[in-house]
Design brief:
The structure is a single chain. Helix content is 49%, strand content 10%. The protein is built from 17 helices and ten strands. The protein is extended, with a radius of gyration of 31 Å. Strand 6 and strand 7 form a beta hairpin. Strands 5, 6, 7, 8, 9 and 10 form a six-stranded mixed β-sheet that branches. Strands 1-2 form a two-stranded antiparallel sheet. Helix 10 packs antiparallel against helix 13 and helix 11 runs antiparallel to helix 12. The protein is of the alpha/beta class. Among the domains are: 106 residues, no CATH class; 104 residues, no CATH class.
Length: 498
């Protein structure tokens, strides 16, 4: 073999070694990621020296305020120092007294009676299985003179005519299913333990009927959500059973969220047209991840799009190999943005925009500049997670500063993430919806239940009261029966049933 052939073979071998090295690094990165998913911490929190933040940002006053000021949305409950957290009980909780006395023969000593000097009282919280009873409605009938007919009191109009379940029972079922994520077969089993036989199929029929009947209230909720200055959007897969085929098809549950409202919508797939339909007519602030449907609408100027910085942070957090120093720099800068946002949301709307303009925009511009430089000039493996994170960030450059110009815009899409979490928990229990109709009914009831939770309303109390009133309520004022407005009316001393 001549010298030229040896040089050519050496070049080929070097290229193969480099390629195998890249593959090895990529596989090692994947192994480390999987190990972290199984054994590592899930939090994306990076420990930083707060004094270093002050030096980097020159924000001694704001950082001091951040350390000292209690911000309700971000303050965690402190655990009791003695390890004994108190139980809080309602004032009207029944009390059953049990007296444990010594035997009569022990109440004397050497023929003399013992003197009672006090009592030791111990209290325990007791549970009894849920109680059920039959409501028997008797309506006397009266014959009119001359055989002209009869007179009888009309039975109150109900949401579902001739249904044998009272509104209170339906409210309990909806709460267990859509707030506690208990599948229908387990609800049926829990009723059976109380001697009540209701099949899963019958429970499913009740949910379908009530879901259809409450569509007008769902539409009223949708109008209220679309009036909001800023909304948060996300979607998650949810399996749908294919009737008669014994298979499941992957559908999607979409959510439009505000801090106090949740609107879910079930779709058979994740096509872009569904995002257009759900957001049709809305032209204000939309927060979301980088799903192409939202980006496409943003490019068409359909609304003011604020992509989620938490998703950007997650991409860099997962990029553990490559340029570690650059990754830490990016994560530190993003953390500055989140810390400044905590301060900004404790101030007025005008001050919030000022903090973003003077302090946050320079940080965003610095991140963009360094990311571009790294992507163009840095030596990065083409399939590495760092390259993926940089591509994700740089693809959003035209929109990264959008949140800074609107006081009600936010840095992340966490409100929608929290609205999606109940579905992620629930589908582990109930696995799938039975049909497209079942998915739509679930979306209606889930919207009302989760809006209750977001508004601090007990969904069981809400559904029982709302379903008793809705049929006689003014159809032009259905918004008064939405969870947030319902809670306000309940607190008002002058409120009257609609």
């Amino acid at each position: 073999m001549n010298a030229q052939a040896l040089l050519q073979e050496n070049t080929i071998l070097r290229e193969q070694v480099a390629s195998l090295g890249y593959q090895n690094q990529q596989l090692q990165e994947q192994i480390e990621w999987f190990k972290k998913q199984i054994f590592g911490q899930k939090s994306e929190k990076i420990i930083e020296d707060v004094n270093q933040l002050e030096l980097d940002l020159g924000l001694e006053e704001l950082i001091t305020e951040l350390k000292e000021q209690k911000i309700a949305a971000h303050t965690r409950k402190k655990r009791s120092q003695n390890g004994k957290d108190k139980i809080t009980l309602p004032d009207n909780l029944p009390v059953e007294t049990q007296i444990l006395d010594i035997p009569e023969e022990d109440k004397t000593q050497e023929g003399k009676p013992l003197v009672k000097i006090g009592e030791e009282i111990t209290q325990k919280l007791v549970h009894k299985p849920g109680s059920y009873y039959i409501k028997k409605i008797i309506r006397p009938k009266y014959a009119l003179p001359g055989g002209e007919g009869i007179r009888i009191q009309e039975i109150p109009e109900t949401l579902i005519p001739r249904l044998t379940a009272d509104e209170s029972l339906l409210a309990e079922i909806f709460t267990k299913k859509f707030a506690d994520h208990i599948p229908l077969y387990r609800i049926s089993e829990s009723l059976a333990r109380e001697g009540i036989g209701i099949s899963r199929q019958l429970l499913s029929q009740w949910i379908l009927k009530c879901g259809r009947a409450l569509i007008p209230l769902y539409e009223a909720l949708k109008k209220e959500v679309l009036k909001s200055e800023a909304i948060f959007v996300d979607e998650t897969p949810i399996d749908m059973q294919m009737p008669g085929k014994g298979k499941v098809h992957q559908g999607y549950m979409w959510v439009l969220a505000t801090p106090t409202k949740r609107l879910y919508s079930f779709k058979k797939d994740r096509k872009h047209e569904h995002a257009k339909e759900i957001l049709k007519g809305y032209g204000q602030i939309v927060h979301s991840d980088k799903y192409g449907a939202y980006e496409q609408l943003a490019n068409q100027k359909a609304f003011h799009w604020c992509p989620c910085w938490a998703h950007i942070r997650r991409k860099f957090y997962e990029a553990e190999s490559g340029d570690i120093e650059f990754r830490q720099w990016i994560l530190r800068k993003i953390r500055y943005l989140f810390m400044l946002e905590k301060v900004a949301w404790a101030r007025s709307a005008e001050e919030r925009v000022k903090i973003r303009t003077t302090k946050e925009i320079p940080i965003v511009e610095e991140i963009i500049g360094k990311a571009k430089e790294k992507l163009i000039n840095g030596k990065i493996l083409p399939k590495s997670k760092l390259k993926e994170a940089l591509g994700y960030l740089c693809g959003l450059i035209p929109y990264l500063k959008n949140y800074t110009t609107h006081a009600e815009a936010r840095l992340d899409n966490n409100i929608a993430e929290r609205a999606i979490r109940p579905l992620a928990i629930g589908r582990k229990n109930w696995l799938f919806v039975g049909s497209e109709e079942g998915g739509n009914a679930a979306a209606v009831l889930l919207s009302l239940v989760q809006s209750c939770r977001a508004s601090g309303v007990n969904p069981r109390e809400y559904f029982e009261d709302m379903m008793r009133r809705i049929m006689s309520h003014n159809s032009q004022k259905l918004d008064e029966l939405l969870p947030e407005q319902w809670a306000v009316s309940r607190k008002s001393p002058h409120s009257q049933p609609g």
